[in-house]
Amino acid sequence: MHPSRLELTHRLSEALDVYASPNVSLSAPEVAEEHILLTVHDQDYLDQVKAVSEDPGLQAVDFGLGTEDDPVFAGMYEAAARIVGGSVIAADAIMDQSTVRAVNFAGGMHHAKRNKASGFCIFNDAAAAIHRMLERGAKRVCYIDVDAHHGDGTESIFWDDERVLTISIHESGLSLFPGTGFANEIGGPRAEGSAVNIALPAMTGDAGWMRAFHAVVPQLVRAFDPEIIVSQHGCDAHRDDEMTNLKLSVDAQRQVALDIAQLADDVCDGRWLATGGGGYNVTAVVPRTWTHLTAIAAGKPVPLRTYVPEQFRRYVLETYGRAMPYLMGDDAQLWWRNWEVGYDPADPVDRTIIATRKEVFPLYGLDPWFD
């Protein structure tokens, strides 16, 4: 989670002229005010974050502060609240109609719950952005989370809110933190079907991941008919990320970003807020994946065969001692089997898909076998 992830993404985006188009503007995020944080977090939790931020000698383990995942540090409150500020600025820009698409690749802190830090996440910026949209008049918002880890914090905040559809495609909790996010977790009693979970088996690669995404996500998004899509693009599902057991390429992650952009165009008149998230191969994977994401949002996707600029590769080698790939893609084969051609009950990915579709599709008037 080192800030170098953000610095390198920004630097690579600049090197590839992603920001150069006249339709792109950059906004400096401010520290989110307390009343914004209180829309998705409890007062006693904020008080604890402030306390350990001012005195890192303190700990509040009951609130997830001072753990191995979330060690305390001076300025923690302001740093976490600034990430929220970025996503809320993006939400406001969309609601003001001053932009259609926005990206905060510093965001995506999806494990943070109302009263607890978790999984490197202190405040939940995506949830705060969604709440802001609802507060300003949005009737339905869809949240799509493609991080390798279950988006448990965001899901829990909107667990019983029928206005928000949360969809998370992730490695199964049987093999990965946080151990949740199974097909039968479908939302609270007043909002059944508002939570959707696709829990993929470890070692799933591009073909299985994209098959699962396209067998569930577009159908439910269209049935829910949101006004805005908010997405979380943790890139820790990459095959070179040591934190997870999925085997994706940059190419597949870029393609799903394109697919989400197309869904936003088809269903939401283009309204789309994208965030970052996890991603622990700091030099080779994160900057390429999130530069692709930013370029897609800007309407000028970077081709996969584009060379990583020489000055950027040299900077990474000299500053971090690591060699960068030469290309913006992994030269992967993105062939995948469309769900409409049938399913294999012996395939663990297909069993995952069926489990999710059987739980949720009937709640939207969809047939779990054929739609």
From TrEMBL:
<dbReference type="InterPro" id="IPR023801">
    <property type="entry name" value="His_deacetylse_dom"/>
</dbReference>
<dbReference type="InterPro" id="IPR003084">
    <property type="entry name" value="HDAC_I/II"/>
</dbReference>
<comment type="similarity">
    <text>Belongs to the histone deacetylase family.</text>
</comment>
<keyword id="KW-0006">Acetoin catabolism</keyword>
<feature type="domain" description="Histone deacetylase">
    <location>
        <begin position="1"/>
        <end position="295"/>
    </location>
</feature>
<protein>
    <recommendedName>
        <fullName>Acetoin utilization protein AcuC</fullName>
    </recommendedName>
</protein>
<dbReference type="InterPro" id="IPR003085">
    <property type="entry name" value="AcuC"/>
</dbReference>
<dbReference type="Pfam" id="PF00850">
    <property type="entry name" value="Hist_deacetyl"/>
</dbReference>
<dbReference type="InterPro" id="IPR023696">
    <property type="entry name" value="Ureohydrolase_dom_sf"/>
</dbReference>
<dbReference type="InterPro" id="IPR037138">
    <property type="entry name" value="His_deacetylse_dom_sf"/>
</dbReference>
<dbReference type="InterPro" id="IPR000286">
    <property type="entry name" value="HDACs"/>
</dbReference>
<keyword id="KW-0378">Hydrolase</keyword>
<comment type="pathway">
    <text>Ketone degradation; acetoin degradation.</text>
</comment>
